[in-house]
Design goal:
about 400 residues; six-stranded antiparallel sheet; five-stranded mixed sheet; 13 strands; about 20% strand
Length: about 400
């Protein structure tokens, strides 16, 4: 084996996180089973490191590791095939080994390599005895089966380790994201709020009335920035932080009408008509009016932004089988492969990117969070190219 191949093998071996760690009970159990099946005094799951072999599982062996120079399993791993030594004292390769001439006085050895899914030979599962012995064909197959079981256990351990590391990294990334957003929000909001205040003072000064045409667009864009910061804050609450609700009784159609009024300023310049179906009945729900209106507003705005000029967005309140608000558009629809991800924070699908739809990918997430806080949910159905229907359902 070349030096590069050996370094790659060692890197793979260390990725399992088993060396120098407490022995997994599953591997100890496997060696006990192997010793019982083959009627030997000793058995081990041996991992071959650079200068040693580490017993990740063992039965009947006193040491946790031995030098690679006297490792039978090192030869098994290097050959990548079963090795059976009926009598080590009579074998010219092993007769001088210290573990043959001294403790544990190995005479019989049989090992099968541990080859992982990436093709690396990590070591071997072996059975050892102080008496000479041999294996028949069925016993050799049984030993191969046990080695595959050992490799499977090691793979599961590495998978758990990888998942744990990913979870830790995700937590760190999430925390960094939240810290960054909080910092950006503060750094934006503070100066913009101050600018807005000064602009209001200028607008109230009669001596500067001639400059109102300059002040007004600055003020409008400042409000837009404040709105964007609020949007970021609403959509990036820390995971697990409760969304506090101030409930009060209100007709569902009233919430819908308020949300539509807020979006008309976006729909009219784009040439998209919002049709509000008349209420068929009056039904009172107990909700946080501001939060629910914001959620519906996000859904209606989303429908408008993804509908071409001349298209229609239809909204209605339904009361059976449960109170709900439905928003149906004639827009581009959502590709089927994107539907599972649309409620994730900052997710922007290919239509949003291609058409440069404004936004940062938080609208649907905010709507879902508000619905969930009320004990409800938002669902989307779409056949790509034929529009989307969003439904916000309450308990």
């Amino acid at each position: 084996m070349s030096d590069a191949d050996e370094e790659a093998r060692l890197s793979a071996l260390h990725s399992y996180g088993v060396l120098d760690a407490p022995r997994p009970a599953e591997l100890d159990d496997l060696t006990r089973l192997a010793a019982s099946i083959f009627d030997t005094a000793m058995s081990a799951v041996s991992l071959v490191d650079r200068d040693r072999q580490w017993f990740a599982g063992k039965t009947g062996l006193a040491d946790d590791e031995t030098s690679r120079d006297v490792s039978f399993c090192s030869r098994t791993a290097a050959a990548r095939e079963q090795l059976v030594v009926p009598d080590a004292r009579a074998d010219e390769h092993f007769r001088s080994y210290s573990n043959v001439t001294g403790d544990p006085h190995i005479r019989f050895y049989a090992g099968s390599p541990l080859i992982d899914d990436d093709g690396f030979a990590l070591g071997a599962l072996c059975v050892i005895d102080e008496r000479p012995g041999d294996l028949g064909p069925r016993q050799r197959e049984a030993l191969s089966t046990l080695s595959r079981q050992a490799t499977g256990h090691l793979s599961l351990m590495r998978s758990r380790l990888v998942v744990a590391e990913l979870g830790d990294e995700l937590a760190r990334v999430t925390q960094r994201e939240e810290d960054l957003i909080a910092t950006i929000s503060h750094e934006l909001r503070t100066p913009v709020t101050a600018i807005q205040g000064y602009l209001e003072l200028l607008a109230d000064d009669e001596r500067l009335a001639g400059y109102n045409r300059l002040v007004e667009p600055i003020h409008r864009n400042g409000q837009r920035l404040v709105g964007m910061v609020d949007h970021l804050l609403n959509g990036t609450r820390p995971a697990g932080a409760p969304l506090l609700l101030h409930r009060m009784p209100v007709e569902l159609h009233t919430v819908l009408a308020a949300a539509v009024r807020a979006v008309q300023a976006v729909a009219e310049p784009r040439g998209v008509e919002i049709v509000v179906e008349p209420a068929t009945q009056a039904s009172v729900v107990s909700v946080d009016v501001a939060r629910l209106t914001q959620a519906v507003q996000q859904l209606v705005r989303n429908a408008v932004l993804f509908t071409a000029p001349g298209g229609t967005v239809t909204v209605r309140a339904v009361y059976s089988p449960a109170p709900a608000i439905e928003i149906a558009d004639t827009g581009v629809g959502i590709p089927a492969d994107e539907l599972p991800y649309v409620f994730q924070r900052f997710f922007r699908g290919r239509h949003a990117r291609r058409q440069a739809v404004p936004g940062v990918g938080l609208g649907l997430h905010i709507a879902q969070e508000a619905a969930a806080a009320h004990g409800g949910r938002v669902t989307l159905s779409s056949a790509g190219g034929t529009g989307t229907t969003a439904r916000l359902t309450l308990p």
